[in-house]
Design brief:
Layout (H helix, E strand, L loop, with lengths): L1 H37 L5 H74 L4
Length: about 120
């Protein structure tokens, strides 16, 4: 159970890292857009270079977005598996507790019968 909690904690940390990466990408995209606005008065070759850089950023953004989506799916699947395992463990523990209670009840009943059989002094 503790191992499941550690895995869930690690998955949450990975998701937070991924969200931080996405924020950085959005900042880069905003920077690229502001550079686009500033380069309207630049020579043609600078504009072409800027467009190439922006295209590279967009490709990187798409790749990172795809990775983020894949990681989200993996995290979702891991959480579901962990929840299923935890639920299975809970059910097994409930069953064990039920069996232990039945055994204790039988033992108590047996002890009571034995005490009732003993002659009172």
């Amino acid at each position: 159970m503790e191992m499941m909690e550690e895995r869930l904690s690690a998955a949450n940390a990975a998701e937070e890292d991924m969200l931080a990466d996405m924020r950085a990408i959005k900042e880069q995209l905003a920077s690229a857009q502001s550079q686009l606005a500033l380069t309207t008065s630049n020579p043609v070759w600078l504009e072409q270079e800027r467009q190439e850089q922006q295209q590279q950023r967009l490709v990187q953004h798409r790749c990172l977005e795809q990775q983020r989506q894949e990681q989200q799916q993996q995290l979702k699947q891991q959480r579901q598996e962990q929840q299923q395992q935890l639920e299975q463990q809970r059910q097994e523990q409930q069953q064990q507790l039920g069996q232990q209670r039945q055994e204790q009840q039988k033992q108590l009943e047996q002890q009571l019968k034995e005490q009732q059989r003993l002659p009172s002094t």
